[in-house]
Amino acid sequence: MSRKKDPSDQPFRDSSAKLDNTAYNNDEDEELLALKRLIYRMPDREAPAGMTESILSSLEPKTVPGWVRIYRWALRPRTVTFQPLKIIPSAMVLVMVLALALQLGPWREEPGSMDPRQASLIPVTFTLSYPEAESVSLIGSFNQWNPAGHKMQQRGERNTWVLELRLPEGRHEYAFLVDGKMVVPDRSSPFYQSDGFGNRNSVLFITRDEAKNI
Amino acid sequence: MDGNDEQNCIDRVLGGEVNAFGTLVERYQKPIFNLMYRMVGSSDRAADLTQETFIRAYQKLERFHPGKRFFPWLYAIGLNLARDFVRKKTWDLERGPTQNPESLSGCDSPGDQLDRMCDSLEFLRLERALDELPIIYREALILRYHDERSMRDIAAALNLSVSAAKMRVHRGLDMLREQYKGGTHEPQKRSF
Amino acid sequence: MALFFAALLIAASISSPSVEAKPADQSVNASVRAASGAGVPEIELNRLLILAVDHRLEDDDVVRLVNVLRTVQTENLPIAPFMGKIEEGLAKQVPLNTIAAVLGQKLDDYRFVIKVLTRKTGEQEITPHDLSRMVGSLDSGITRDELAQFILEASGQDLSMLARATEILALLKQVRFKESLTREIIFIGLRNNSLTQSWDYLARVVATAKRRQIPDDEIARAARQALEASRPFGDFMAALGFTPRDLRHGPAVGRSPERNQ
Q1: A182 three-state secondary structure
Q2: Ordered alpha helix ranges (H), A83-173
């Protein structure tokens, strides 16, 4: 399961070659090259002595349940040479078969990952006015209520929180998660759904037919 | 230490071996400390924040995805911590942290290990110029040209896409060069 | 995703009693095994286990949630709404006890709706989607009594249409459309079998129409006429004077996202 070499995986190596495939004229070339070298040579500060001990001394040994560790083990990327099992000796054969068959992708859908079906999604803009908030995320039925990857940005004079997304047709439930813990519905939507936890989610209907998205 | 060794190290930590975490601390305390120093300009503060970063990472270790690289993950934790810290200070944002009187001008704090830097005006000038850049651009440059990280690692550390990270590096370099040419005399507004 | 994680757990619990078997470990393993045995798809079990790791759930809580999925499966109910509710509760940092209580309530809601439907139609098939739609109306402002009465009184045998109708009933109530008019519209649509899929957007159009100060009576008349003659939804909209324009109504739909940075 060896991967093709991905240029973004390559560490930068100082060389006289141009970087990042951009065209500079020679003088600029020299200037930038000099800057890069300077940055490279910039002396590092040493961390204060004893930091490691100081950190370790404040840590408690972890008591992670066995099943979590099995799970983490299962998630590790595999190479063709199979790794020895430590946790489930007697299930080795079964797991070997499974491990070789495992196609291990990202932990979760990476936000912004390219979906071949992107073209059939409809753009939607979510906005929230909440200037005091430090952070706002959009959570909903379309992202498994997971705030990661759906952080909203503040824009404009009134610091309105904004997020643009592409969503499939149909009915979607959603809410804004303010500062990681407060659930706020979308005032601009007339439709709601009680979540059972004491909040109201907002409801959105999207159709490809522009006429109905009035 | 390649990814696999790191993974084994983490597994041991999760198995209850606290000391195994020390390996990771040893390996990464310097870049994290330097990140913190760039952010807050004080050795003591930087040390505190570095400790906090590792402690935070330790607490979240179960949630660290086995397939990913540890340093960018750690770095992102540190960067967030530092930003929160900076945000809470009542510093004049126009001036930026390294012009805070508490932090050194490079040569004024005794006990700070920057004597070498004081000797080198060139580096001092670089540090000042870097400090004028928005944080993400500065960090992108450091990660790329000082730490020699891959674009993928840089993107993960800064929570950007690879193409956005490339842009930061590219633009950052241009901006740095502008600073060197005199730049604007008013300090840049900080953008996070 | 570790697609075979559940299988690994099951393998572990079957084959190695010598695995550092804390009692808690075993109960997670055992409950996952039981759920899988009952037919809960592995992909859902894996999703749940990922959530458990992400949210650092106690083993007891993991077992609780897995057991809920097992119950849902054995009663032949759709798993997705329950998984969704778990995800939602965890994301909103709701205490596990509350999540469990809500899941229990949801189970009861499903059982209730099925009982009512069985009374109405005897043995019939309903898609999970339509069933969930009907149950969903109970969270949209319709009480159990209202729902039961509505279902039993409604004409027609098309459960898909009936599900749509219950949703419309709830939504139009939310925007304070005159209830008697709502019922008229719905019953005509059901009787004529004309309450088809494009009428999913009825509530949205009604909400906008009301914002434009179009009286309920006029809206109802346009809808009735279209439904009586089984005309397309677009005709209903045209009768109200709507043209394809982007009127701001809830999140702005249809604008291309501006390029970031």
Answers
A1: strand
A2: 92-101
Closest-approach residue (CA) in chain A for B130 = A39
Domain limits of chain C?
1-93
Alpha-carbon distance of C257 to A169, in angstroms, equals: 17
Indicate the pTM of the whole model. 0.57
**Domains assigned to chain A:** 51-101 (no CATH), 120-212 (2.60.40.10)
Q: By the CB < 8 Å criterion, does B160 face chain C?
A: no
Distance from CA of A73 to the nearest CA of B (A): 8
* Structural domains present in chain B: 1-107 (1.10.1740.10), 120-182 (1.10.10.10)
Report the distance separating Cα B39 and Cα C16, nearest Å: 51
Q: Does C88 touch chain B (CB under 8 A)?
A: no
Task: Please state the rounded mean pLDDT for residues C147-170.
Answer: 92
C137 DSSP 8-state letter: G
More confident residue, B2 or C154: C154
Any CB–CB contact under 8 A between C58 and chain B?
Answer: no
Residue in chain A closest to B54 (alpha carbons) equals A55
pLDDT of residue B62: 85
User: Which of A52, A61, A69 is closest, CB to CB, to B22?
Assistant: A52
Q: With CA atoms as reference, report the closest residue to C204 among A211, A213, A124, A170.
A: A213
Kindly compute the dihedral angle of the four CA atoms of residues B107, B111, B113, B118, in this order, to the nearest 10 degrees: 10
Q: Do B62 and C261 touch (CB under 8 A)?
A: no
Report yes or no: C10 and C32 within 8 Å, Cβ to Cβ. Answer: yes
> Which residues touch C141 (CB under 8 Å, ≥6 apart)?
C170, C173, C174
Which positions ≥6 away from A19 have C-beta within 8 Å? A12, A32, A36
Give tens-digit pLDDT for A119-153: 567 888 999 999 889 999 999 999 889 888 789 99
Q: Do B63 and C53 touch (CB under 8 A)?
A: yes
Q: Show Cβ contacts of residue A119 under 8 Å, excluding neighbours closer than 6 positions.
A: none
Helices (H) and strands (E) in chain C, counts: 13, 1
State the CB neighbour count (10 A cutoff) for residue B165. 26
Q: How far is A110 from chain B (nearest CA, A)?
A: 10
List the 134-173 stretch of A: residues with Cβ below 8 A of C.
139, 141, 144-147, 164-166, 171
Out of A88, A195, A204, the one facing C250 most closely (by C-beta) is A204
Residues A37 and C33: their CA atoms lie apart, in Å, by: 58
